[in-house]
Amino acid sequence: MKQGKNRTHRIEGLVALLLFCIFAACVLTVLLTGAKEYRQLTQRDQAAYRRRTCAQYIATRVRQADYLGGIRVAPFGESDALFLKENDGYVTRVYWHDGYLMELYAAGDAELFPQDGEKVMELSRLSLSMENGLLTVELSDTAGVSQTLRLCLRSGPSAEEAWQAQTGVDGAEAMQAGGEEEAL
Questions:
Q1: How many angstroms separate the CA atoms of 36 and 122, rounded?
Q2: Quick check: is 7 in a domain?
Q3: Could you tell me if residue 144 is inside a domain?
Q4: Are 158 and 132 in contact (CB under 8 A)?
Q5: Rounded distance, CA 66 to CA 93, Å?
Q6: What is the number of domains present in the chain?
Q7: Cα 108 to Cα 117: distance, rounded to the nearest angstrom
């Protein structure tokens, strides 16, 4: 009789141990799957953050310098750069050099080189163009994802040209005629 009770206890113990092992394996599987998904989501969010940050950085810098004669695109080194004129006679150059978005703040007449600037963030490509008051910025992050940013300048002759191109109406004529449309 004693052997029967011993076997029953052993079987009950083995069943409890087996259930514990199954539970532990399930918990471990869920944790590992969750960790993998979390890592993928974090990487995706970081890449999106870098893209948004770069585009917003450029847009903010352009908006800060958007006054008559404050913005131009011109060659600097081997690529084009945004030249953002400050009120104090200094110029901020925003450009791409050696895999980085760079910024260089110096006197407007200073002779400088692209490597003199400060690294802002990693970027695999930056293309700048300005036509009729529309600044087009094409950028690619290190993962190869491209993004295009288009900003319509709100001041200066370039903004007037953009208004005319969009509406076909001279801005001064519209104001004299009492037009109710506003420039974008």
A1: 26
A2: no
A3: yes
A4: yes
A5: 14
A6: 1
A7: 14
Strand order in the sheet with 125-131: 125-131, 134-140, 146-152
**According to the model, what pLDDT value does residue 43 have?**
85
Amino acid identity of 21? C
Indicate whether 184 belongs to any domain. no
Which residue segment(s) compose the domain that 142 sits in?
Answer: 46-176
CA pair distance 95, 73, nearest whole angstrom: 10
Residue 182 has pLDDT above 50, yes or no: no
CB 85 within 8 A of CB 73: no
Q: pLDDT per residue over 16-71, tens digit each?
A: 899 999 999 999 999 988 888 889 999 888 877 877 888 899 999 999 888 888 88
The first and second tokens of residue 180, run together, are 């109710």
Dihedral, 116, 121, 125, 127 alpha carbons, nearest 10? -70
Inside any domain, residue 139:
yes
**Burial status of residue 4 (CB atoms within 10 A of its CB: 0-12, 13-18, 19 or more):** exposed
